[in-house]
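Hey L., structure's done. Input below.
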Amino acid sequence: MSNLKKDQVKSVFSKNADAYVKSTTHSQGNDLEQMISWIQPEPNWAALDLATGGGHVAKLLAPDMGIVFATDLTKDMLQNTASYLKHFPNIHYVVADAEDIPFIDDTFDVIACRIAAHHFPHPERFIQEVNRVLKPGGKFLFIDNIAPEDPELERFMNTFEEMRDPSHARALPISEWEDLLTKNHLSILKSNHTKKALPFQNWVTRTLDNETQIKAVTDFFSSASDNVKQHFEFIEENNLLQSFSLDHWMVLCEKKANKRS
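Output:
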């Protein structure tokens, strides 16, 4: 991960650590409900939660797994999350970069990464590392906001995401993620592409408290084309944006038993 982007990630998430623990966008969702049924965990398994943030995935996995390692690039975020999850003795916390995972090859039965990869400047390294530390036959559960395939819509999304959060790197379209997974011998078992509605004010103020910056993001949305408004499902009242929707992708993969990138 580039040093500049790393510093931006640490700055944003250190400042907003508690907000991400309490954020309904992160702490709730159908994807969390589906996760256990998709993974079918076993009590002797070891799991890795990459970029754990508020620890919602680690918390969900811990009761059904032997051991869970919750990792994050931001120490302050991880420290805060550990205080909330102190009643889960099998969760261990490691400051780690998802593009340079500090574990040996073929370590984990399950790896999960939820609503985080759009902060990774080198997604190809991330997927290579997932393949490296996942056991043959192991499962990788990936969830993130994804960009539309249409270039205009992708540009709009990645522009507003970085305006609102400088630690944002890039949201990729599904086709690019599928290509990376295939190249790294991760076979897709099942996937689900949905829309996720976000309340605009809650979303924009989670990372921004500067009125000038908030206005810039608000104005950017106001200037959107009809095509953009339709795709992102703008809901407006009295010419004020109340909510919009992002594309959301959940995919379960399995590492091929006889290959490693």
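The chain has one domain: 3-148+167-195+247-255. The CA atoms of residues 51 and 72 lie 4 Å apart.

-- N.
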